[in-house]
From TrEMBL:
<protein>
    <submittedName>
        <fullName>Short-chain dehydrogenase</fullName>
    </submittedName>
</protein>
<dbReference type="InterPro" id="IPR002347">
    <property type="entry name" value="SDR_fam"/>
</dbReference>
<dbReference type="GO" id="GO:0016491">
    <property type="term" value="F:oxidoreductase activity"/>
</dbReference>
<dbReference type="InterPro" id="IPR036291">
    <property type="entry name" value="NAD(P)-bd_dom_sf"/>
</dbReference>
<comment type="similarity">
    <text>Belongs to the short-chain dehydrogenases/reductases (SDR) family.</text>
</comment>
<keyword id="KW-0560">Oxidoreductase</keyword>
<dbReference type="Pfam" id="PF00106">
    <property type="entry name" value="adh_short"/>
</dbReference>
Length: 238
């Protein structure tokens, strides 16, 4: 997809991958980037007049409705906002498990449902969902989070099939461990957030449907592609 003159919205743009995605998009000839955050005072200064700060808690119906009214035109929606709890599908309470689902699954779907008509009105565009390599199989420390990302993976495939006729590309991004606050307590080697964001934006430009933006995710996606059970066993033994 050519980014020239595109209007883009990024959720969770105040830190981590979201903030770097905004910076990466700004290197291209885009028209406008809505940098959204739960609390707009937490947004960095992107030093670019094409950036429009916007309040958007993806779990809030009111915030989503207000954002849709303000945005009016949109080509690319980037569903980046997410949380990761260390919950366990056997021992954690349903209330604990709900946190990942509310943000990563229902929150993301709420935003997609609300903004899709705007993208449709432009004659097409793209929805980019930040899934995870753990969408494909669960590491034991984060089984509640993995389940929410597996649900989002399924919704990504469904959105792609449903929106094909509307000229809306639906792109899944499946990172491995990236050096952000979200992954700070994971004792793993992590990829640079700047490289990750660059690779995601380049993947969008190249028209990829599935983006593996770091070396670990590329390697694990190959394993999953050749033998899904092997990835399940790899994560089960981590
Ligand atoms: N880092 C990794 O290793 C990794 C790997 C695979 C996938 N991912 C995915 O990549 C995405 C970005 O993760 P990250 O690593 O950049 O995480 P991060 O540094 O923890 O940032 C998470 C972002 O999501 C926002 N957010 C959380 N709940 C929200 C809500 N209800 N409404 C709006 N924004 C909300 C946060 O805002 P606040 O500052 O207000 O909390 C923050 O901007 C997530 O979907 C994550 O699951 C990350």
């Amino acid at each position: 997809m050519d980014l020239k003159s595109k209007v883009i919205l990024v959720t969770g743009a105040n830190r981590g991958i979201g903030a770097e995605l905004v910076r990466s998009f700004l290197k291209h000839d885009v028209e406008k980037v809505y940098a959204t955050a739960r609390n707009i005072s937490s947004l960095p200064n992107f030093n670019d007049s094409r950036v429009v700060p916007l309040k958007l808690d993806i779990t809030s119906k009111e915030d989503v409705a207000a954002a849709v009214n303000l945005v009016v035109q949109l080509d690319i929606l980037v569903n980046n906002a997410g949380v990761m709890t260390y919950s366990n599908v056997i021992t954690s309470s349903i209330e604990q498990l709900t946190e990942d689902m509310d943000v990563n699954y229902y929150g993301t779907l709420r935003v997609s449902q609300a903004f899709t008509p705007l993208i449709e009105k432009r004659g097409g565009g793209a929805i980019v969902n930040l899934n995870s390599i753990v969408s494909y199989a669960p590491p034991l420390a984060i089984t509640g989070y993995s389940a929410s990302k597996a649900a989002l993976f399924s919704a990504t495939q469904a959105q792609r099939a449903i929106l094909k006729t509307k000229n809306i590309e639906v792109i899944g991004v499946y990172p491995g461990p990236i050096d952000t606050d979200l992954a700070k307590d994971l004792p793993l080697d992590k990829a640079s957030v700047i490289d990750t964001a660059e690779n995601i934006v380049n993947g969008i430009i190249e028209g990829k449907e599935d983006i593996y933006p770091d070396p670990t995710s590329s390697q694990l996606a190959q394993l999953w592609g050749s033998n899904p059970k092997a990835l399940e066993n790899f994560f089960a033994n981590m």
